[in-house]
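The protein record minuted underneath.
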Amino acid sequence: MPQIQSIREQYQKGSSVAELSRTFGVDPKTIRKYVNQEDFSPKPPEKATKASILDPYKPRINTWLAEDQGRWHKQRHTAKRIHDRLAAEVPGYACSYNTVQRYVKRMLQEQRAVRASLELVWHPGESQADFGEADFLERGTMVRKKYLTLSFASSNDSFTQVFGGETAECVCQGLKDIFAYIGGVPPVIVFDNATGVGRRIGEVIHEAELFARMRAHYGFSVRFCNPHSGYEKGNVEAKIGYTRRNLFVPEPSFDDIEAYNRTLLSMHEPKAEETHYKKLVPIKELFEEDKKAFLPLPRSPFDPVRYEYLKTDGYGKVRIDARHYYSTSPASAGREVLVAIRAHTIDILDEHNHLVVRHSRVYGEQRTDSCDYRTSLAVLMNNPGAWKNSGIREMVPDPLKALMDRQERTELHATLRTMQRLADDYGFEIALQALEEAVQRSRTAFHDAAILAARIAGYGLNMAPERGQDLHVYDEFLEGAQV
């Protein structure tokens, strides 16, 4: 600037462009530019960019990185993979790995910066839903289960329900129970693209039929995140971790998952007493604002069930979820039966839609076989020779099992008939307990076992019998008569 100022001052005093060029050693064109320039305001600096050997390949790299946004995060391009692909697919490619690595790192940082600005504003009533997983002690066995969390980003409140899987039945059952507990329906729910209710492919939403029916029943709207874009529902992602650390440590223990879920709904209350980390208002007060935006509950309850006609195999079992087998009735072997599939149960129905047998629904990758004692007993009655390889034998206590193992076919058939009759009257567990007690007392006749079953069902074996009517007057009368 000092030189420019000198040039302009000399020019104003009468020096020509040629004289100034000779005096300052500057090209005449530059002199003319300085003397004619009217605006010397500071200009934003422009970062000098040098041509890179990677420039011809950047459009291809950018395309690969953009396509990766629709892929699983563990199966995306690394800088090394991009470098290897360019070397293999582009003739004449001669860039170093370090050059590619620096460019890819910069582009990924820019992508993350864009993501961080998404979904920052959430209105009262809008919610987010997703699944987490944790270990639970169910009936004394440690099992890993899924839990559905519905969170409200505006208030930071949330509610959770535990299930065996992530199916549409589980999502619908969980939402139904949460809606009933909070007394309304959130107008909008944002889902992960991988849940069992549906997914977004491009701009098209594909919903599971059961979930679509539930939406129509309750009237809420739904949005699906882009594939592998958990940052679009960051509130529920944080709540999933919070729930695991605060409600599931140590591992909860329960025998009845549905009863545990009812208890779990109220476990949000201590968190609701806290102050919102940003708004500095109690969470429960903010949740009241959420509730004002809720849709009303429908007058009729929704039944989250999926009906399917399934053909049984030669053992009278139907297969569900590819690897789980459930018994039906003996007469249904090789036939088609109607099955009601819910989050926690599998119901086998007859031709009049009446319940034949109910099983607890099983999840997981391992094959399972769920048998109803009535089915197995009925089959064994026709074929006692299959006793030692039957599923019923595995359910029988050891003393009774040892006795039945030694019985001849006729005796075994009689014991099975006794077991079936007692099970029909008192239930299978009491029938086994009565027969086991009868064996220990060496009284295996049906009438003896029936008396034991009645005592167990009525007041238990260990309780002393009630005192009956006082009959001593009859004793005295009889004694007098004998005299």
Remarks:
- The longest strand covers residues 126-138.
